[in-house]
Amino acid sequence: MAIPVDPALIEDLVVANRVLVNEGVLDAFGHVSARHPKNPQRYLLGRNLAPALVTAGDIVEYDLDSNPIEPPANFTHFHERFIHGEIYRARPDVQAVVHSHSPNVIPFGVTEHPLRPLYHMSSFLAPGVPVFEIRESAGMTNMLVSNNALGKSLAKTLGPSNVALMRGHGNVIVAKTIPMAVFRAVYTEVNARLQLQTASLGGPINFLADEEGEKAMQVLENIHVRAWDIWKRSVLAQMKS
Ligand SMILES: [Zn+2]
Questions:
Q1: For a FRET experiment, which of 32, 101, 115, 237 has its CA 20 to 30 Å from that of 21?
Q2: By the 8 A CB rule, do 203 and 193 touch?
Q3: For the segment 203-218, what is each residue's pLDDT rounded down to a tens digit?
Q4: Domain ranges in the chain?
Q5: How far is the CA of 168 from the centre of ligand 1 (A)?
Q6: What is the mean pLDDT of the chain?
Q7: 101 alpha carbon to ligand 1 midpoint, in Å?
């Protein structure tokens, strides 16, 4: 049976979808989920719908095998929901997951150039950004993480990191809260854009040192809510108008 959830959490999940569209991280595709606050063996994710269209009534509860719990008969489900189920299974610390095809990040999954933090806003990249090579798990595929085995392989590649790239596809971002997952997804895209611009200047790039990354990440713990607050306000205003 589905377990009722605080409507404020559902609202944040709906808002997260729309913020990520507004900020150019999600388009017609991609998704964001939250672990169920009352049962860590379940998670909440929109039904198979473009993120900008997700409302509270579209949020579905899934178990960690990504089977929907009591879904309305007319709902279909994301082919790649297994990303979420397997990351929640592998990472008990994670409470929110974003999967996107965020465009500026794509080049770093298909070249030898690692995505690294250029500035304090993306210091959460400092622990490293691994790249998931789907060919190593399943040979030639349609590139989608569309079953539990592939989700498990992706979660293994992610390891303890905050971000993993998916070669020729997109990325996954994890965090302890929905606002932090959204913040990291937005600034992963911004860092990727800045890193491409910086590379065009030529010469070596002076990335944040590991220790700087560690220290700057602690600052983000406090300040990311300012960004979430303004993003949420504008989304709620859009939804009313
Ligand atoms: Zn995808």
A1: 115
A2: no
A3: 999 999 999 999 999 9
A4: 7-230
A5: 10
A6: 97
A7: 6
